[in-house]
Amino acid sequence: MGTGQEQVKRELLLDGLDCANCALKIENGVKKIKGITDCSVNFVTKTLSMHTTSDMDEQVVEEAKRKVLRLEPHIRISEKGKPSIGNHASAEAVSRLNGHRHAQAGTETEADGQDHDHAGHSHDHEHHHGTHYHGVQDHAHDPGKHEGHTHSHSHGHEHDAHAGHSHEHGSGQTKVLLARLAAGSALVAAAIWSPLEGWAQLALYVVAYLIAGGDIVLQAFKNIIRGQVFDEYFLMSVATIGAFAIGEYPEGVAVMLFYQLGELFQGMAVNRSRKSIESLMDIRPDYANILTGSGDETKRVSPEEVRIGDRIVVRAGEKVPLDGIVKAGRSMVDTSALTGESVPRELEPGSDVLSGFVNKNGMLTIEVTKTFDESTVSKILDLVQNASSRKAKTEHFISKFARYYTPVVVILAALIAFVPPLVLSGATFADWIYRALVFLVISCPCALVVSIPLGFFGGIGAASRNGILVKGSNYLEALNDVKVVVFDKTGTLTKGVFKVTAIRPEGGRTEDELMELAAMAEAQSNHPIAESIRAAWAKDIRTQGVEDYDEVAGHGIRVSVDGREVLAGNAKMMDQAGILYTKPETVGTVIHVAEAGVYAGHLIISDEVKEDAAAAIQALKKLGIRKTVMLTGDAKAVGEAVGRELGVDEVYAELLPQHKVERLEQLEAAKSPKEKMVFVGDGINDTPVLARADVGVAMGGLGSDAAIEAADVVIMTDEPSRLASAIRIAKRTRRIVWQNIGFALGVKAIFLLLGVFGIATMWEAVFSDVGVTVLAVLNAMRVLRVKNI
C-alpha cells in the first residue's frame, strides 16, 4: 500500500450482482479509482471490499458507487445499514440482501413490499459484523416474508426486465423466463415446420429471437454505449445477429434459447453452492431471552440489545445467542456448528459457553460476558464472509487472463471471418463468417470466472464445517506449499492445564508455608502456572501486606510481603537475584520461591500432552511436511521430553516471546523461498510470531482474542490434528480448482479448433460455453461436501 496513510476498509453490498464477468468488470473498474489501494469483488457473496486512504475515504467510496452503477446500472448498492442506491432503490430504507435483511436493530424501517419487486430471492446470508448489520432476521418473526422463494436465477428485474442480465431468478421471474423459452421454442418450431416462407417465416424467427434474447442484445448495446464492449452479452449478440446476417436463422435463435437455458441451470448450480454456504451461517442467533427486572419473566429481544452483565435464558433446542458464563442449570450442548466436534459438551454452573452452541436438553441461565459484536459467533460469521476479499494467486491469474482473453478472441474471430476468403481460393465469406461466429460463442470465459472463486469459497466453507476458520483463499492456497510447521508447546501441543505435582520446601519451611508464599506472589497473575498454584493452595490468599507486584516477562513474579521481597519464578530469576537454589531432576515446570534473599524451596508443575498431538505430527509428516519444530519458554528438559514423546524433529526451549520471533526468522532463512512455514500457537504470548509466519494458526475458540486477530487460520476445536485436515482441504480445493481450469481451457481449445476447421457448429459452441460452465460449477461444489476429513 505504501502511502503512509491510515487504511480504511469499506464494503459495499451489490444486490443483483450474480454474474462473474460483471463482478470482474466492476473489480477492474473500481481498482483504477485514485485513492483505492486494494479492491476485490466476490460474486458469490455479492460483496465489494476495498481499502481507501483515510483522508479520501468518503469521496472515494462515492466514486466507487458511481463506477458500479455506470458499469451495471441494474445493481442496487448498500453499505453498513445505509439505504440502497440504484435504479429501483430510492424507496428502500434498508439493504435487502438475498432475502435475509439484517437491519440495524430499532433504527431502520422497511419499505414494505419493495423487496419482492426487485431481484429474485436467493437464500444467501450476508453478515458484516461491526457494521450494524446485526438486527434480528425478519424471517424469524415473519415467515410469510419468504414465501415462494426459488433457488435459481433471474435475468433482470421486473421493473426493468431488459436492463440487466443478472443470473438470479425469483419465483415469478423464473416462470416468466420459462414462458419466454417455451414461446421462443414454439415459434422456431412453427417457422421450421410451417408452410410459411420468405418474410413471414423470417418474421417468426425475429419474434422468437427477440423473446429469447432481446434482453441480452439490449444489454450489449447499453454496455457498448458505456464503453464496455468485450463481455458475454457482446459475444452472444454478435454471434447470433451474425447468424441471421448469413441466413442461419434457426441456429441464431437456438443459440439464444440454449444460452438462456444454460444460464438458468448455471444459476441454479451457483445457488445450490450458496445454500451450502448458508448452512454455515445458520449459527447466527435470531433472538435472546433476557431476564427482566423481576428475575422470573423473560423478554425476547435482538442479540444486539443485550449488554454485558445481563442474564439470558436458553431453553432446550435453542441456540446460545451470546458468549457468557453459566449461572444456573445443567445441560448438554451441541458445539458441532461452531467447532466441528460431534460429541456434545456438558455445561454446569461456572462453565464458559459460546454463542452458536445449541442447547440439547436442560434450561440454562447465562450471564453475558461479551456483546454480540464481540461474540464468538459474530467473529466466525465475519471471518467466513470476509474471507473472499483476500484472493488466491490463482484467482488473480484468472482475473488477468479473462481481461486479455476476450479481446484477443474477438480479434482472432475477425481475422477468421475476413482473412481466409481473401487468401484462399474457393473460400466463401458466408462459411468463414459462420466459423468466426462459432468461435465467438465458444470463447466466453464464464466457466473460469465462475468456478474458480466458487471453488475457493467452497474450500473455506468446508474448512469452517470442520472447525477451521481460514481468513482468505490466499491462505488456503498457501497451505498447499507448507513444508515447515512450528508449534508453540503450552496450550497448543499440551493442554495448558497445569497442576502442582510436587511441593519441595527448604530452609526449615513446611509445605503449607511454601505454598502460601507462592500463592501470595502469584495472586494477581493471569498466567496458567499462576492459576495452577492458586488452585493447589485452595484457600483464601492473604492480600494484607502484599504490595509492589511486578511481573518480569520470561522470569517470574517479584512482590513485597510484609516488607520482605518474595520472588517466584524460574532459574533465570534466581540467578539474576544471586540466590543459590536446588536443581530438581524431575521433568516439569519448576517454580523457585525465595523470601528476603533466602531460598524457600520449589514447586514442580506439569502440563498434560493433548490426546491427538502425536497423531497430528504423524499426519503432517504423511502430508509431506519436511520439518516439525516446537518452541517453548519452558525448561529445556521439559521441552525435550515432550518433543521426544510427540516425535517432533527440533525443540527449542527457554525462549522469551522475542526469541521465538528470532528463531522463526532463522527457520525462515533456512528454507527455500517456495516453501511456506506455518506457526501454530494458542496465543497468550504468540501474537508477534503468528503475524511473522507465512501462515499463522491460532488454536482454540476460547483462545486469546489478540491471537485470533493476528492469525490467518483459527482452529476452533483446540485439536492440533485439525491442521492436517486444513492442509488436506487446501490440497483438495486446489486439485478441484485446477481440474476446472484444465477442463474449461481444454474443452474450449478443442472446440475453437473444431470451429475454425468448420467441424463444430453453433450447437457444439453453446455446449462448450454454457455446458462447460455448469459442469465446472458442479465440480467446484464438490469441495463443500468435505466433512470430517
From TrEMBL:
Its main location: membrane. GO terms for molecular function: ATP binding; ATP hydrolysis activity; metal ion binding; P-type cadmium transporter activity; P-type zinc transporter activity. It is found in: Cell membrane. Residues 113-127, 135-170 have a biased composition (Basic and acidic residues). PROSITE patterns: ATPASE_E1_E2, HMA_1, HMA_2. It comes from the Bacteria. It is a multi-pass membrane protein. GO terms for cellular component: plasma membrane. The chain crosses the membrane at residues 177-196, 202-218, 401-420, 432-457, 737-759. This is Cadmium-translocating P-type ATPase.
